[in-house]
Design brief:
Helix content is 45%, strand content 17%. It is an alpha+beta fold and 275 residues long. β6 and β7 form a beta hairpin. The relative contact order is 0.10.
Length: 275
């Protein structure tokens, strides 16, 4: 029995109580149900056939056929002799092919271009390397003709919008270690150099989903940033928009933070984040 034939027997006419009615297009329905099985096992860590059938609203026999087809492809396996199923090593084989094709820069590039075009300022992508935020890509808007080229720049985490995103999502021990190594020197007269004040800012960043800095790295420069998450739920990057203080005031633009958060979520989703 092949994978497709093993799961296309779902279009029963004798569905019992609670079972879903079978829509037209059995092939699409079969794929949807197979994916639902995998998602169910991912969330539960392991389930019996009856539990899977109940969760899906299908006959136990239908769930059994789905599991049998998935088991033949190594997508699921029986966890013990009692018949409890869990995800199989075939999932790892498929997942292993993803990182080689995914690139944070590649996925973020069109988003940066769209942000720069919409808001007219420079959109940046940064990552955390050792104890600094490193800008790895940027897109300039039509107003950003005189904006500094930030690609490759190593910037202090306590004085930048992207850096504060990374700090806000570090475990407290890792954060303490990083700041102990770098200190919090004043880059400008407006740089936050108090750890207590910074910690309050970081808590607000986690709550709001974005960070802002006003002339903390350079006098005359404002910025706003959001996190980018990977499939494990780790913050692996930050997308920011920066511009000159005379025209760019992040929190005075009601749509800016919302759109930037959406942009971060879009890139995160492309990297497998489902939170």
């Amino acid at each position: 029995m092949g994978f497709e034939t093993g799961i296309q027997a779902d279009n029963e006419t004798s569905a019992g109580p609670g079972a879903r009615s079978a829509p037209a297009g059995g092939g699409v329905q079969s794929v949807d149900r197979a994916v639902t099985v995998l998602e169910t096992l991912s969330s539960t860590g392991g389930s019996f056939v009856g539990e899977i059938a109940e969760a899906m609203g299908v006959h136990k026999s239908t769930a059994s056929r789905l599991l049998s087809a998935l088991e033949k492809r190594g997508m699921v396996q029986q966890a013990d002799e009692r018949g409890k199923y869990q995800l199989g090593f075939g999932i790892l084989r498929l997942a292993a092919a993803i990182p080689s094709r995914l690139s944070l820069v590649q996925e973020a590039r069109p988003v940066l271009l769209a942000l720069a075009d919409e808001f007219g300022e420079t959109a940046n992508l940064a990552v955390l390397r050792s104890n600094v935020a490193v800008n790895v890509d940027q897109a300039m808007g039509p107003f950003a003709v005189a904006t500094h080229d930030w690609i490759g720049n190593l910037t202090p985490v306590h004085a930048t919008a992207s850096g504060k995103i990374f700090l806000a999502h570090l475990e407290s021990e890792a954060r303490d270690k990083l700041l102990a190594a770098t200190g919090m020197p004043a880059e400008t007269s407006k740089t936050i150099t108090s750890r207590a004040v910074l910690d309050k800012q970081l808590a607000r960043i986690v709550e709001s989903g974005y960070s802002t800095v006003y002339e903390e790295l350079e006098i005359g420069l404002h910025a706003i940033a959001v996190p980018v998450w990977d499939y494990r739920g780790d913050v692996i990057g930050s997308i920011s928009i920066s511009g000159p203080a005379f025209r760019f005031h992040p929190e005075e633009s009601p749509d800016l933070a919302h759109e930037l958060i959406r942009a971060g979520e879009q890139v995160s989703a492309h990297l497998g984040y489902s939170g």
